[in-house]
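Readers of this paper often ask what the protein records in our data store actually look like. Such a record has a labelled line for the sequence and another for the backbone structure tokens. The tokens are whole numbers drawn from a learned vocabulary of local backbone shapes. We quote a single record here, exactly as it is kept in our systems:
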Amino acid sequence: MPIAPASALPEVTASDQALRRFLHGLPGVDPVGLEARAASLGTRSIKTSAKAYAIDLAISMIDLTTLEGADTPGKVRSLAAKAVHPDPTDRTSPTTAAVCVYPDLVATAKEALNGADVKVASVATAFPAGRAALGVKLADTRDAVAAGADEIDMVIDRGAFLAGKYLKVYEEILAVKEAAGPARLKVIFETGELSTYDNIRRASWLGMLAGADFIKTSTGKVAVNATPANTLLMLEAVRDFRLQTGVQVGVKPAGGIRTTKDAIKFLVLVNETAGPDWLANRWFRFGASSLLNDLLMQRQKLATGRYSGPDYVTVD
């Protein structure tokens, strides 16, 4: 069901009052109904042939990530090699969608990928807390793009959002979008800190109205990250946004998705909620590096009839 007629969407030069009126006019979320719907879709079973397709699709949607204070150029080069050839023993495996690193390691990742069909994504805007002046956030973004980043993963100011300063958050996203230039912008809400499903719906629409190319659940740095329910809610948002505006926006659940079974549940959510147009890595990503090894082991099981074990995949 459409959220609102297109004429009711706030103008790009939204006033605080117009933005607040729109966001608080969105339908309230029924938590019980949302979680029941997500749980029911998670029970769907798929055939073996479809499972093989789903595994390769999931591999192609992974943003292979290292975001630690101890990251080194060597670790990034190793990650890039794994992104290009996830299973060194089987060159039929698809590449991952992207390698995601801090801005100071973007150039290293770009060089290591050496023209491979893998994007370089970079977290920016004072990731993961987002507690910095706008000028610092914009400089962070420009540095990453200048170093070769194809995608920018920014974090919103959750404190401003929770205080009801929607226009401030909107204008920051708009400014980062401009600073990112040709790079695609993923806007991270940190859903585990937004407290309610209503807030997640509002943040989704706020991000899309400000020009996000992707909306993303989490940084992976808090206790509650991606869940089927919050991802379902965001998939509903991008579906309704395209109905109203004609603009398609991607979704990226991040953090806590570790098994092939989990990944397939999320792919079912995508297909049944937003539709097959989102079943490509241009429109759906997994921010779940630990997921890749399980996908590779399940892929080997389908090919050989036996589990290879964790020693046959690289340790990140």
Observations:
- The radius of gyration is 19 Å.
- The first helix runs from residue 16 to 24.
- The mean pLDDT is 92.
